[in-house]
């Protein structure tokens, strides 16, 4: 039996879930349409582009390191790193060492995104999205789905015929 994923694929040192690799390989990791996104993330108002390759995810996620070098920018975007003195980073902050982007705002300057958040699981990470619409802070992060596989199912990218609106 031949392994479909002969080498472990990583973005920012984090193992990319097999489901995401399968969706990318099969051409099913693509924007499902605004109604589907609105159903899963009703607060999210910016048009999104789903990042269509591991290379795009890696490239777009490099900004996590750059933006955390400046404390003011890190505060603005809701980015943080765990520190021995302060302990782990929790939501509404994005731990930049435990996440990478899978979708980005379509228009430059909107500065919103969806990320895989590995604080909950290394094999089926939580999905979080930025929220600039419902908080007094400039940008917070909130859970979209408890797992990536749940997110895929909710967006109906898995090919399953799910009833409902």
Automatic annotation (TrEMBL):
Q: Which domain of life is it from?
A: Bacteria
Question: What protein does this entry describe?
Answer: SMI1/KNR4 family protein
């Amino acid at each position: 039996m031949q392994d479909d994923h002969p080498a472990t694929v990583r973005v920012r040192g984090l193992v990319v879930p097999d489901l995401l690799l399968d969706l990318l390989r099969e051409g099913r990791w693509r924007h499902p349409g605004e109604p589907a996104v609105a159903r899963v993330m009703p607060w999210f108002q910016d048009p999104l582009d789903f990042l269509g390759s591991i290379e795009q995810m890696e490239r777009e996620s490099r900004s996590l390191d750059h933006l955390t070098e400046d404390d003011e920018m890190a505060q603005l975007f809701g980015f943080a790193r765990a520190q021995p003195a302060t302990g782990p980073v929790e939501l509404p902050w994005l731990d930049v060492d435990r996440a990478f982007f899978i979708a980005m705002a379509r228009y430059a300057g909107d500065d919103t995104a969806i990320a895989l958040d590995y604080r909950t699981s290394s094999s089926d990470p939580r999905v979080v999205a930025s929220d600039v619409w419902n908080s007094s802070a400039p940008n917070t992060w909130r859970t979209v789905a408890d797992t990536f596989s749940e997110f895929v199912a909710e967006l109906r990218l898995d090919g399953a015929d799910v009833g409902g609106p």
